[in-house]
From TrEMBL:
Name of the protein in its database record: Uncharacterized protein
Keyword vocabulary terms for this entry: Membrane, Transmembrane, Transmembrane helix
UniProt entry tagged with the keyword Transmembrane: yes
Positions of transmembrane segments: 32-56
Biased composition (Polar residues): 61-81
Region (Disordered): 60-81
Lineage top rank: taxon: Bacteria
């Protein structure tokens, strides 16, 4: 990369060149490709989410003393002293 800053007229000529480019709407095939890509992405995300929940379920850890939570065990231990 060069350490030189762009010439003062370069930015103006670049803006003029970009303004001179005519508007080109998307072709029907481009619209179709965008739509298919978005639908495929959402569908695959749903399949991945389902597979993750089915094959790798996340369950809370079970406590050794039944239905007590760790906080209630700590409280019961500290009150029995």
């Amino acid at each position: 990369m060069s350490d030189r800053s762009p010439e003062p007229g370069t930015q103006q000529s670049l803006a003029e060149e970009l303004a001179a480019i005519p508007y080109e709407p998307l072709l029907p095939i481009e619209k179709w490709l965008i739509a298919v890509s978005l639908i495929l992405g959402v569908a695959l995300l749903g399949i991945l989410s389902w597979a993750s929940a089915t094959y790798f379920p996340v369950t809370p850890p079970s406590s050794a003393s039944g239905s007590q939570t760790p906080n209630s065990q700590t409280t019961a231990t500290s009150t029995s002293r």
